[in-house]
Amino acid sequence: MKTKGFASWQVLIKKELLLAYRNKTVQISAGIIWVLFISAMACSYLNYQARYKQRLAANTLFRQQWEHQQRNPHDAGHFGTYLFKSVNLLNVFDAGIDDYTGNTYRVEAHIQHEMSSSEAENNDGAMRFGTLTLALILQLLVPLFLLFNTSTSITSERESGTLKMLQAQGLSNGKIIWTKVFANYLLIVSIVLPVFILLVTAVLYVPGSAYLLPRLCWILITFLLYFLLIALLGTIISTLSNHSGKALLSALCFWIFMSTISRR
Fold first, then answer.
1. pLDDT one-digit tens code per residue, 183-221
2. How far apart, in whole angstroms, are the C-alpha atoms of residue 28 and residue 38?
Protein backbone atom coordinates (compact mmCIF):
# COMPACT_ATOMS: atom_id res chain seq x y z
CA MET A 1 0.00 0.00 0.00
CA LYS A 2 2.84 2.35 0.81
CA THR A 3 4.48 1.58 -2.53
CA LYS A 4 1.23 2.26 -4.35
CA GLY A 5 0.76 5.53 -2.48
CA PHE A 6 4.32 6.63 -3.28
CA ALA A 7 3.80 5.74 -6.94
CA SER A 8 0.67 7.90 -7.05
CA TRP A 9 2.66 10.80 -5.57
CA GLN A 10 5.26 10.37 -8.31
CA VAL A 11 2.62 10.34 -11.04
CA LEU A 12 0.90 13.47 -9.73
CA ILE A 13 4.12 15.43 -9.27
CA LYS A 14 5.36 14.35 -12.71
CA LYS A 15 2.08 15.50 -14.23
CA GLU A 16 2.39 18.91 -12.53
CA LEU A 17 5.99 19.32 -13.72
CA LEU A 18 5.03 18.42 -17.30
CA LEU A 19 2.23 20.99 -17.25
CA ALA A 20 4.65 23.62 -15.95
CA TYR A 21 7.22 22.66 -18.61
CA ARG A 22 4.64 23.12 -21.38
CA ASN A 23 3.42 26.42 -19.98
CA LYS A 24 4.83 29.28 -22.06
CA THR A 25 4.46 31.73 -19.19
CA VAL A 26 6.58 29.53 -16.93
CA GLN A 27 9.20 29.11 -19.66
CA ILE A 28 9.44 32.86 -20.30
CA SER A 29 9.55 33.65 -16.57
CA ALA A 30 12.29 31.08 -15.98
CA GLY A 31 14.23 32.52 -18.93
CA ILE A 32 13.96 36.05 -17.52
CA ILE A 33 15.15 34.85 -14.11
CA TRP A 34 18.17 33.18 -15.67
CA VAL A 35 19.01 36.29 -17.71
CA LEU A 36 18.91 38.27 -14.47
CA PHE A 37 21.04 35.62 -12.74
CA ILE A 38 23.70 35.82 -15.44
CA SER A 39 23.67 39.64 -15.51
CA ALA A 40 23.88 39.91 -11.72
CA MET A 41 26.66 37.33 -11.51
CA ALA A 42 28.73 39.03 -14.22
CA CYS A 43 28.30 42.53 -12.77
CA SER A 44 28.92 41.37 -9.20
CA TYR A 45 32.07 39.47 -10.18
CA LEU A 46 33.51 42.46 -12.06
CA ASN A 47 32.68 44.68 -9.07
CA TYR A 48 34.33 42.16 -6.73
CA GLN A 49 37.51 42.12 -8.80
CA ALA A 50 37.63 45.93 -8.93
CA ARG A 51 37.14 46.24 -5.17
CA TYR A 52 39.76 43.58 -4.46
CA LYS A 53 42.36 45.33 -6.63
CA GLN A 54 41.55 48.73 -5.12
CA ARG A 55 41.95 47.45 -1.57
CA LEU A 56 45.19 45.67 -2.44
CA ALA A 57 46.65 48.80 -4.04
CA ALA A 58 45.47 51.04 -1.17
CA ASN A 59 46.86 48.71 1.50
CA THR A 60 50.21 48.61 -0.27
CA LEU A 61 50.32 52.41 -0.60
CA PHE A 62 49.48 53.19 3.03
CA ARG A 63 51.83 50.46 4.27
CA GLN A 64 54.69 52.03 2.32
CA GLN A 65 53.83 55.48 3.69
CA TRP A 66 53.82 54.11 7.21
CA GLU A 67 57.15 52.31 6.86
CA HIS A 68 59.00 55.20 5.20
CA GLN A 69 57.90 58.06 7.45
CA GLN A 70 60.64 59.64 9.57
CA ARG A 71 58.67 60.36 12.74
CA ASN A 72 58.71 59.43 16.40
CA PRO A 73 56.00 57.07 17.71
CA HIS A 74 53.79 59.93 19.00
CA ASP A 75 53.81 61.77 15.68
CA ALA A 76 53.30 58.48 13.84
CA GLY A 77 50.18 57.85 15.93
CA HIS A 78 48.77 61.23 14.92
CA PHE A 79 49.79 60.63 11.32
CA GLY A 80 47.55 57.57 11.37
CA THR A 81 46.68 55.18 8.58
CA TYR A 82 43.68 53.60 6.89
CA LEU A 83 42.12 50.16 7.23
CA PHE A 84 39.99 48.63 4.49
CA LYS A 85 37.27 46.06 4.98
CA SER A 86 38.28 42.86 3.23
CA VAL A 87 36.24 41.30 0.45
CA ASN A 88 35.77 37.64 -0.41
CA LEU A 89 34.12 35.58 -3.10
CA LEU A 90 30.75 35.63 -1.32
CA ASN A 91 30.53 39.32 -2.19
CA VAL A 92 29.63 38.08 -5.67
CA PHE A 93 26.51 36.57 -4.09
CA ASP A 94 25.70 39.54 -1.85
CA ALA A 95 27.73 42.49 -0.60
CA GLY A 96 25.69 42.66 2.59
CA ILE A 97 25.57 46.07 4.26
CA ASP A 98 29.00 47.15 3.01
CA ASP A 99 27.42 49.48 0.43
CA TYR A 100 25.69 51.40 3.23
CA THR A 101 28.07 51.25 6.19
CA GLY A 102 31.26 52.03 4.27
CA ASN A 103 34.46 50.07 3.78
CA THR A 104 37.23 52.46 4.89
CA TYR A 105 38.26 53.27 8.46
CA ARG A 106 40.88 55.80 9.49
CA VAL A 107 43.01 54.92 12.52
CA GLU A 108 44.42 57.95 14.36
CA ALA A 109 45.63 58.56 17.91
CA HIS A 110 43.09 60.16 20.33
CA ILE A 111 40.42 60.39 17.62
CA GLN A 112 37.70 57.86 16.85
CA HIS A 113 36.56 58.04 13.26
CA GLU A 114 33.56 56.41 11.62
CA MET A 115 33.41 54.13 8.62
CA SER A 116 33.39 56.04 5.35
CA SER A 117 33.37 55.63 1.55
CA SER A 118 30.03 53.83 1.28
CA GLU A 119 28.85 53.02 -2.23
CA ALA A 120 25.33 54.32 -1.54
CA GLU A 121 26.54 57.66 -0.17
CA ASN A 122 26.30 59.41 -3.52
CA ASN A 123 24.02 56.92 -5.24
CA ASP A 124 20.35 57.55 -4.49
CA GLY A 125 19.21 54.56 -6.58
CA ALA A 126 21.40 52.13 -4.64
CA MET A 127 20.22 53.65 -1.36
CA ARG A 128 16.56 53.15 -2.24
CA PHE A 129 16.53 49.87 -4.14
CA GLY A 130 19.90 48.22 -3.63
CA THR A 131 22.09 46.76 -6.32
CA LEU A 132 21.18 43.82 -8.53
CA THR A 133 22.73 40.78 -6.87
CA LEU A 134 22.07 37.06 -6.81
CA ALA A 135 20.75 37.38 -3.27
CA LEU A 136 18.28 40.09 -4.31
CA ILE A 137 16.91 37.91 -7.12
CA LEU A 138 16.58 34.88 -4.82
CA GLN A 139 15.05 36.94 -2.05
CA LEU A 140 12.48 38.92 -4.05
CA LEU A 141 12.01 37.90 -7.69
CA VAL A 142 12.08 34.11 -7.32
CA PRO A 143 9.43 34.18 -4.54
CA LEU A 144 7.25 36.37 -6.77
CA PHE A 145 7.49 33.77 -9.53
CA LEU A 146 6.78 30.99 -7.04
CA LEU A 147 3.79 32.78 -5.51
CA PHE A 148 2.24 33.42 -8.92
CA ASN A 149 2.51 29.72 -9.75
CA THR A 150 1.25 28.34 -6.47
CA SER A 151 -1.50 30.89 -5.79
CA THR A 152 -3.47 29.67 -8.81
CA SER A 153 -2.59 25.98 -8.53
CA ILE A 154 -5.80 24.95 -6.73
CA THR A 155 -8.13 27.67 -8.05
CA SER A 156 -7.29 26.79 -11.66
CA GLU A 157 -8.17 23.15 -10.95
CA ARG A 158 -11.42 24.24 -9.32
CA GLU A 159 -12.37 26.59 -12.17
CA SER A 160 -11.63 24.01 -14.85
CA GLY A 161 -13.57 21.29 -13.01
CA THR A 162 -10.59 18.93 -12.70
CA LEU A 163 -10.46 19.29 -8.91
CA LYS A 164 -13.70 17.31 -8.52
CA MET A 165 -12.32 14.69 -10.90
CA LEU A 166 -9.22 14.28 -8.74
CA GLN A 167 -11.34 14.02 -5.60
CA ALA A 168 -13.58 11.46 -7.30
CA GLN A 169 -10.53 9.28 -7.89
CA GLY A 170 -9.97 9.03 -4.15
CA LEU A 171 -7.42 11.81 -3.70
CA SER A 172 -7.77 13.72 -0.47
CA ASN A 173 -7.54 17.50 -0.31
CA GLY A 174 -4.33 17.21 1.70
CA LYS A 175 -2.69 15.03 -0.92
CA ILE A 176 -3.67 17.41 -3.71
CA ILE A 177 -2.30 20.39 -1.78
CA TRP A 178 1.03 18.73 -0.98
CA THR A 179 1.35 17.59 -4.58
CA LYS A 180 1.04 21.20 -5.72
CA VAL A 181 3.53 22.33 -3.08
CA PHE A 182 6.23 19.77 -3.92
CA ALA A 183 5.78 20.07 -7.69
CA ASN A 184 6.24 23.86 -7.64
CA TYR A 185 9.04 23.52 -5.10
CA LEU A 186 10.94 21.07 -7.32
CA LEU A 187 10.38 23.40 -10.27
CA ILE A 188 11.95 26.37 -8.50
CA VAL A 189 14.80 24.24 -7.12
CA SER A 190 15.64 23.08 -10.64
CA ILE A 191 15.86 26.75 -11.67
CA VAL A 192 18.03 28.07 -8.82
CA LEU A 193 20.18 25.04 -7.98
CA PRO A 194 22.60 25.54 -10.93
CA VAL A 195 23.43 28.97 -9.49
CA PHE A 196 24.60 27.45 -6.21
CA ILE A 197 26.50 24.74 -8.07
CA LEU A 198 28.41 27.47 -9.92
CA LEU A 199 29.10 29.30 -6.65
CA VAL A 200 30.35 26.13 -4.94
CA THR A 201 32.58 25.40 -7.94
CA ALA A 202 33.99 28.93 -7.82
CA VAL A 203 34.64 28.70 -4.06
CA LEU A 204 36.50 25.41 -4.49
CA TYR A 205 38.41 26.66 -7.52
CA VAL A 206 39.62 30.04 -6.20
CA PRO A 207 42.67 29.58 -3.92
CA GLY A 208 42.09 30.49 -0.29
CA SER A 209 38.29 30.49 -0.54
CA ALA A 210 37.54 26.96 0.69
CA TYR A 211 36.71 28.30 4.17
CA LEU A 212 33.64 29.97 2.63
CA LEU A 213 32.07 26.62 1.69
CA PRO A 214 30.26 26.02 5.04
CA ARG A 215 28.76 29.54 4.87
CA LEU A 216 27.60 28.93 1.31
CA CYS A 217 26.02 25.62 2.32
CA TRP A 218 24.10 27.30 5.13
CA ILE A 219 22.90 29.97 2.70
CA LEU A 220 21.72 27.24 0.32
CA ILE A 221 19.85 25.38 3.07
CA THR A 222 18.22 28.61 4.27
CA PHE A 223 17.00 29.53 0.80
CA LEU A 224 15.68 26.02 0.15
CA LEU A 225 13.62 26.19 3.36
CA TYR A 226 12.52 29.71 2.44
CA PHE A 227 11.25 28.56 -0.96
CA LEU A 228 9.44 25.62 0.61
CA LEU A 229 7.58 27.96 2.98
CA ILE A 230 6.70 30.29 0.09
CA ALA A 231 5.38 27.36 -1.97
CA LEU A 232 3.29 26.18 0.97
CA LEU A 233 1.95 29.68 1.62
CA GLY A 234 1.02 30.24 -2.03
CA THR A 235 -0.81 26.92 -2.17
CA ILE A 236 -2.71 27.73 1.05
CA ILE A 237 -3.74 31.08 -0.47
CA SER A 238 -4.99 29.22 -3.54
CA THR A 239 -6.90 26.73 -1.37
CA LEU A 240 -8.67 29.47 0.59
CA SER A 241 -9.50 31.57 -2.49
CA ASN A 242 -12.52 30.94 -4.67
CA HIS A 243 -11.16 32.72 -7.73
CA SER A 244 -7.75 32.92 -9.42
CA GLY A 245 -7.84 36.71 -9.60
CA LYS A 246 -8.45 37.00 -5.87
CA ALA A 247 -5.68 34.50 -5.18
CA LEU A 248 -3.19 36.43 -7.34
CA LEU A 249 -4.11 39.70 -5.64
CA SER A 250 -3.65 38.16 -2.19
CA ALA A 251 -0.29 36.67 -3.21
CA LEU A 252 0.86 40.02 -4.65
CA CYS A 253 -0.12 41.86 -1.46
CA PHE A 254 1.82 39.38 0.64
CA TRP A 255 4.85 39.69 -1.67
CA ILE A 256 4.82 43.50 -1.39
CA PHE A 257 4.58 43.26 2.40
CA MET A 258 7.37 40.66 2.52
CA SER A 259 9.59 42.72 0.20
CA THR A 260 9.11 45.85 2.30
CA ILE A 261 10.01 44.04 5.51
CA SER A 262 13.03 42.24 4.03
CA ARG A 263 14.56 45.39 2.54
CA ARG A 264 14.47 47.35 5.79
1. 899 999 999 998 888 888 888 887 777 788 888 889 999
2. 15
> Which residues neighbour 194 within 8 Å (Cβ) at sequence distance 6 or greater?
none
pLDDT of 1 > 50? The answer is no
Q: What is the 3-state secondary structure (H, E, C) of the chain?
A: CHHHHHHHHHHHHHHHHHHHHHCHHHHHHHHHHHHHHHHHHHHHHHHHHHHHHHHHHHHHHHHHHHHHCCCCHHHHHHHCEEEECCCCHHHHCCCCCHHHHCCEEEEECCEECCCECCCCCCCHHHHHHCCCCHHHHHHHHHHHHHHHHHCCHHHHHHHHCHHHHHHHCCCCHHHHHHHHHHHHHHHHHHHHHHHHHHHHHHHHHCCCCHHHHHHHHHHHHHHHHHHHHHHHHHHHHHHHCCCHHHHHHHHHHHHHHHHHHHCC
* Spatial separation of the C-alpha atoms in residues 142 and 67, rounded to whole Å: 51
pTM for the complete prediction?
Answer: 0.80
